[in-house]
Specification:
The protein folds into two domains: 187 residues, FAD/NAD(P)-binding domain, CATH 3.50.50; 214 residues, D-Amino Acid Oxidase, Chain A, domain 2 (2-Layer Sandwich), CATH 3.30.9.10. Helix content is 25%, strand content 22%.
């Protein structure tokens, strides 16, 4: 006789581990089998910014509702584990130096707060302005939600003196912060294993779907092929969610982009240790000296470095307050690519990111000409057209998907796994569940509507 399992999960990244925890620990399914050919949390989940937020745009309030619930679960896990994964609530700070974009930034703040992210507090420099409570460097309880919108330069530079002098407006989104993603993943895995789940090292080669239902999963392991009889199969394969779905005869509407992360030791203290996640919302022309501009202009390939880069360069401190590690990210490449490991990073990506971030944090310019040694890694954002994930049944009885988490898997996985588990075990689904089902694409009006969507919340 072969092995059996109540549920087989393909993938031991954040999606698969959150699903295993939800099914084994919170739903008491004792026979959950997680399959991955790599060690848990080592493909893309540990390459993220490790941040979270409930600050999401529409249309509709589904993303805000989902993130609110997911953060509630993260808070509960932090409390029960003694905050093993160092959850904080420092927030996200979005800023602009363009007076013509102040109204845009205000609308950007108003939309998520109107959709349920919390109240908007406006600080314009008037005596009647509400109080502003700075975020502590650690902890997450009893802190403001919503956002603080700063329209007064004096207040901006009083609370965030490290920002560029020309900063004219800023939004501090509050139910946001970051955590140690590796420790979160290991906590979810350990708790799942303690409640009867098991981990199989191997590659899923086929899924038997005779008669239109899941019957068996075949796995190639280091010691030979294994057949696992199961009535339920979950595709939580991260960047490989599409190819795994094809084993079921299902084509998912997903694609992938390569996103890179830079880490270095900020020995000059250019990024303050107590800062929130810092995001510059303006397009950036990289700062070059006249000599550098002339040299770059001599090469057609290098000349692109003289053109404006898109908005969204962001950075944060990493590690403890006595550490000097920092992270920088900038998504200026958004072309669709094939998933392959290992991948090649752009040779000058680190310098581009540091120069771009210096627009918001002028202290970084002290590194020009003597750039620190940077570590560049990253992973794939596997996403749908409208940047909303997939969680729910597939058109094969017993088959499910939890994927297309598009770089926000750390923050969304717990809430998405709860949705998925409710589909698996039955029970009332929240109103926002329909927004994440594959069946949404069966609606021609929906397919037409997403073509007109603008900003999707992707950083």
């Amino acid at each position: 006789m072969g092995e059996t399992a109540e549920v087989v999960i393909c993938g031991a990244g954040i999606a698969g581990l959150a699903a295993a925890h939800e099914l084994a620990v919170r739903r008491s399914i004792r026979d959950v089998c997680i399959v991955d050919e790599r060690a848990p949390f080592t493909l893309t989940s540990d390459k993220s910014t490790e941040c979270y937020r409930n600050f999401w745009p529409g249309p509709g309030d589904e993303m805000v509702a989902l993130m609110n619930r997911s953060i509630e679960i993260l808070d509960d896990l932090a409390r029960e584990s003694g905050n093993r994964f160092q959850l904080n609530r420092r927030g996200y700070l979005y800023a602009t130096g363009d007076p013509e974009r102040v109204a845009t930034l205000r609308r950007f703040a108003e939309e998520p707060t109107a959709l349920g992210a919390g109240p908007l507090r406006v600080h314009s420099g008037a005596p009647s302005d509400p109080d502003y409570l700075p975020a502590p460097s650690a902890g997450f309880d009893d802190l403001p939600t919503g956002a603080d919108l700063f329209l007064d330069g004096a207040a901006i530079h009083r609370h965030f003196p490290y920002l560029a002098d020309e900063t004219v407006a800023a939004v501090h989104a509050r139910r946001c912060g970051w955590l140690d993603a590796q420790q979160l993943g290991m906590y979810l895995l350990e708790r799942s294993l303690a409640h009867g789940a098991r981990l199989v090292v191997g590659r899923i080669e086929s899924v038997d779907t005779r008669g239109g239902r899941v019957r068996e999963v075949r796995v190639a392991t280091p010691t030979g092929a294994v057949a696992i009889g199961t009535p339920r199969f979950l595709d939580a394969a991260g960047p490989y969610v599409g190819p795994i779905a094809r084993l079921l005869g299902v084509e998912l509407p997903v694609f992938s982009e390569l996103h890179l992360k830079i880490a270095f030791h900020d020995r000059l203290g250019a990024i303050p240790r107590g800062a929130p996640l810092l995001i510059w919302t303006d397009a950036v022309a990289l700062p070059w000296s006249e000599e550098e501009r002339a040299m770059l202009g001599e090469s057609a390939e290098a000349r692109r470095l003289l053109d404006p880069f898109p908005a969204g360069v962001h950075a944060r401190p990493e590690g403890a307050l006595d550490s000097d590690s920092v992270l920088l990210l900038w998504t200026y490449h958004t072309e669709t690519v094939e998933v392959e490991f290992p991948f090649e990073a752009e040779p000058n990506h680190a310098e581009i990111a540091v120069r771009g971030m210096s627009r918001m944090l002028p202290a970084l310019r002290a590194y020009f000409g003597r750039f620190p040694r940077c570590v560049v890694d990253g992973g794939y954002y596997t996403k749908t057209r409208e940047n909303r994930f997939l969680a729910g049944p597939l058109p094969v009885t017993g088959a499910y998907v939890l994927g297309a988490l598009s770089g926000y898997g750390i923050m969304a996985a717990c809430g998405a796994a709860e949705l998925l588990a409710t589909h698996v075990t039955g029970g009332p689904l929240p109103r926002h569940a329909a927004a994440f089902r594959l069946e949404r694409y069966d609606d021609p009006d929906y397919r037409k509507r997403i073509e007109s969507w603008g900003f999707t919340g992707q950083l």
